Amino acid sequence: MANTPEQHEPLTESEISEQKQVRLDKRERMIEAGLAPYPLELPITAKIADVVESHQGLEADVKTGDIVGVAGRIVHLRNTGKLCFAALQDGDGRIQAMISLAEVGEESLAQWKEFVDLGDQIFVQGEVITSRRGELSIMATEWKMASKALRPLPNLHTELNEETRVRQRYLDLINRPAARQMVQTRALANASLRQTFAENGFLEVETPMLQTLHGGAAARPFSTHSNAFDTDLFLRIAPELYLKRALVGGLDRVFEINRNFRNEGADSTHSPEFAMLEAYQAYGDYNSIADLTQQLVQNAARAVSEDGSAVVTWADGTQFDLGGDWPRISMYESLSEKSGVEVTPSTSVEELQALADREGVEVKLPNHGKLVEELWEHFVKGELEKPVFVVDFPMETSPLTAAHRSKPGVVEKWDLYVRGFELATGYSELIDPIDQRERFVEQARESDRGDVEAMHLDEDFLTALEYGMPPAGGMGMGIDRLLMALTGLGIRETVLFPLVK
């Protein structure tokens, strides 16, 4: 059995206050001595990671003659007589700094011992050497305080508890290389998405976060008020209706990586604020947009994987293959197979409700579509581990989606499932303004029945459709969920600063 990292309780507020006062006193004494605890400029010439990279494989007790100036946080400190040691970390790299009486002089060494604490940001300048034990080091000829830390660091040799990691992510980033790696992984994935879109001729655009009407998804919005316009506004739940307006205007391939806000529950796969990718392709459909989505995810996997393949390594060491052509299964057919009851678009609400009652599945404000989707999640969703497109959804739950070209009662929509959660969704877009108006009217009826997630009738969007929107495929994918698929972690680990109670 693998050893679990030891966890220690964080310092109490009393302990922090006591140590903080000691550090405040040091700050004051530094100022009195003419030393700047927070200088505006330092003669930095290199990053620690670059110094380490360029001096690999040296033997012990070597002087390189290379003079550098670096800065980093002290994550280990040992003061012994005429020679002091500090491990400096600048985010990507770590190196040992050596402060000796012979190199910096008696006054500077005394000031180091008096003023420097674990957690301080320090600048050192000196020669790159290896110690007698072979550790790459900088023998400082000069040191300066870069930023005096007033609070003590947690014990860096033990694992922070989850509460601290999430609420004080900056401590997590200092303490845990995996936390810093997640930020880099996310950046690589986003860069890959943008590159794939560019290679396919898409333009990145920006659409409003503040909207007079919320739409583009079934979700409860956050509301706010504009003093300048004296009007109530909504934080967007999706950029869809504005991106479709762009297609009407002749921008045939557009995408946006944006922030969305949904005033609903938070769990291991949901967050009230989240990053979303949406894209729309004129003269595409839900098949072509599925092909594009597979390409986007697989390219992102290659960008973050260790060997450039579509096989990613999760945080627990598990390897997960995102390669190959992903299968496409019918929602109705897979539900019928797993439930043992034939379910079709013509199955009545009463029959579906009876099946739901038998299985203990509760559905709020039930209609055919909601019952089918909830039953499908009950019977099928939990068995989906490898990537799979679930296709052809009930019409009632997809008011912005085109009716299937050959299957009555369903729409051309898919959801992409990976690791048992929904990663992305895609559509053949509804472009008939008359049909769209009727769908909005039906949504208004659902709202009157008490459905707080039902869409409102958007007259300006309907006006745009009346000018003619080309046939199109559209897709949306949660960036946070993409990182979950690439790393095997939960949503609170993939978000840099998650919202918590």
From TrEMBL:
Cofactor: Mg(2+)
Chain residue ranges for the region called Disordered: 1-20
EC supergroup of this enzyme: ligase
List of residues binding Mg(2+) 1: D415, E422
Residue ranges annotated for the Aminoacyl-transfer RNA synthetases class-II family profile domain, each copy included: 191-498
Subunit structure of this chain's protein: Homodimer.
Family as reported in the entry's similarity comment: Belongs to the class-II aminoacyl-tRNA synthetase family.
Protein name: Lysine--tRNA ligase
